[in-house]
Amino acid sequence: MSSISLSNVTKTFGAANIIKGVDLSIEDGELVVFVGPSGCGKSTLLRLISGLEEITSGQIHLGKKRVDHLSAASRDIAMVFQSYALYPHMTVAENIGFPLKMAGKSKAEIEAKTNEIGTILQLLPLFERTPKQLSGGQRQRVAIGRALARDPQIILLDEPLSNLDAALRVDMRMELARLHRDLKATMIYVTHDQVEAMTMADRIVVLRDGIVEQVGSPLDLYLTPVNQFVAGFIGSPRMNFWDATTNENGDLLLPSGTALSLPRKLTAHQPVTVGVRPEHLVLAADDGTAALQGTVLSVEHLGSDTFVQLHCGFGDPAQVDINVRFAGIVPVRIGERVNLSVASLDNWHIFDAEGIRVEAAQ
Amino acid sequence: MQTTLAKKICIYLAAALLALVIALPVLWLFIMSISSSTHLTTLPLEWWPDSPTLENYRSLLIYAENTPSQSFLYAIRNSIFIALAATGLSICAAIPAAYSFSRMPGPRRKNLLYAVIAIFMLPPVALVLPLYTVMSALGLLNTHFALIIVYCSILLPFATWLLKSNFDTIPGDLDEAPIIDGANRLQAIWYVILPIARPALGAAVMMSVLLAWDEFFYGLLFTNDIRSKTITVAIADLAAGRVADYGLISAAGILAAVPPVILAFFMQKTLVSGLASGSVKG
């Protein structure tokens, strides 16, 4: 296993810039997840690392070795495809042994290694079957087994769980996390599923339009998103945003007109975007201190949580502009007016006109 | 859906009719081949010879100088050699050609593909004169080599199209997975793509052999003696003498069908498709 670093990697297809200068370094044994909306370039970035696509400019180093000029076959990187891409005419054992056969290993070596992997992944009873005779989860395990066969430096996984049903996905997610711990493998994992990203990643890389927006641990991204895009992308339901300004003291002006003094002073008379996560809003007393006031448009009771959608007067009265997630069962009714405040001063996220997080005024 | 009895009867009748249309000429050919020539010229025509004879087969299969058997046996040998060689060469060239057409598309390759098909569509008669001149100038007339080259020009575009359309159905991930697993492009084709495309490959081989086996026009014009005459030409020769022995011609026809039938028998397993299922997704 090995570390990997990308410096100023770009990729253009014809006139289209897909990857616009990515710098990234991934430690040995780390599990890094690439997330981002469709078309953000996360799969392309993975293919550039694998060598299936050539980079347009920049450098990729695997450990100390520069690999961007090497073919995919000689990079010593394994990949699990979204479609699994198992060889349909080979048995499970032959599928797992294929990379070893290509590496010119002897029959005995191949058998020893495939048996070892079969034991780790509990595939031994299926060794003589063909992919057609396997369930989705079993195919997934075979694909992972094939990736492990060569003891690669890095394992790349391109949305590996997206073809599984919800229950199996949870199982496989835990199994992958366990494998990662046991093997101490360096893994890069592409997904659009936030839960996968948050639960599995050592670090998450958020991509948008071929640019890395933020790299950090799941909780870093959740607690201190560097910009409005990351704030909106991480967390479900999505963070609430509204436009606001500051007063002459650098305090935030709430919709009610009262000023809120945040731990960090803002620039006076600055237009800002305010962000608060749905789970950080709580019911407040009607004593004029509430941060927001709104009319309930819909209520969803899930038992463990209550999702409430409100109109708080930021736009079209028929439109939802604030989502709230209350813990437990909360007795609110549609049409009711409620007062909300924010649980802690740390839960306020302030972004400037460019959408960049405002830490504190100078 | 409910199948009524009348519907069933109709379907079986139609199937029987179709089978009859296909089988009757072969059956008639067989009856002719076991009849003596006097019997065949008797009027009124009899449907079954009163003394079936294998004489026609004997005179074709037992070798003797300057008899129909000499011409027939040489022709069988020539046809087998030419058909297999032309098929082998064509398939060897068609596999990489089809792969590149399928996997590396682009305007230039696309135009080339259409050009290939356009040439394939040209009637042989449009090409035969220039080809004849070229072969004559190269001293290749009346050789196996001439027919192999000409047949390759027919088989190659056909096999390329057939394989390309099959390669198109194989997911691209199955090209990339072996590359990631350390194979080079040729190994990826050999170990993964070709085994998956085996039914199509079998069909391409089968059809190519048949096309070459049945070809008559070029065979007739480019060959003139037993050294290179093909079976179709040899059978025609049997009818070209002063007296056409229809029994002999029929027997030759039946025998000429044997090699392709044997080939089809051995390849029927390969021709069964459905291998690609289960490779990707659930």
Kindly describe this structure:
The complex is a heterodimer of chains A (362) and B (282). By secondary structure, chain A is α+β, with helices and mostly antiparallel strands. Chain A folds into 2 domains: 4-229, Rossmann fold (3-Layer(aba) Sandwich), CATH 3.40.50.300; 237-351, OB fold (Dihydrolipoamide Acetyltransferase, E2P), CATH 2.40.50.140. Chain A contains 8 helices and 20 strands. The longest helix of chain A is centred in the middle third of the chain and has 18 residues, at 166-183. The model of chain A has no long low-confidence stretch (mean pLDDT 89). Chain B is mostly helical. Chain B has one domain (70-271): MetI-like (MetI-like fold, Orthogonal Bundle), CATH 1.10.3720. Chain B contains 13 helices and no strands. Mean pLDDT of chain B is 85; it is low at 274-282.
CATH-defined superfamily of the largest domain in chain A: P-loop containing nucleotide triphosphate hydrolases
For the largest beta-sheet of chain B, the strand count, sense and barrel status come to: none
Give the strand tally of chain A.
20
Rg of chain A from C-alpha positions? 25 Å
CATH architecture of chain B: Orthogonal Bundle
**In order across it, which strands form the biggest sheet of chain A?**
6-7-8-3-9-10
User: What count of domains describes the coordinates of chain A?
Assistant: 2
Low-confidence stretches of chain A: none
Percent of residues in helices of chain A: 10-25%
| Overall SS class of chain A | alpha+beta
Which radius of gyration of chain B do the C-alpha atoms yield?
A: 23 Å
**What's the average pLDDT of chain A?**
89
Order of helices and strands of chain B: HHHHHHHHHHHHH
Span between termini of chain B? 29 Å
Biggest beta sheet attributes of chain A: 6 strands, mixed
Beta-strand residue percentage of chain A = 25-35%
What multimeric state do the chains show? heterodimer
| CATH class category of the largest domain in chain A | Alpha Beta
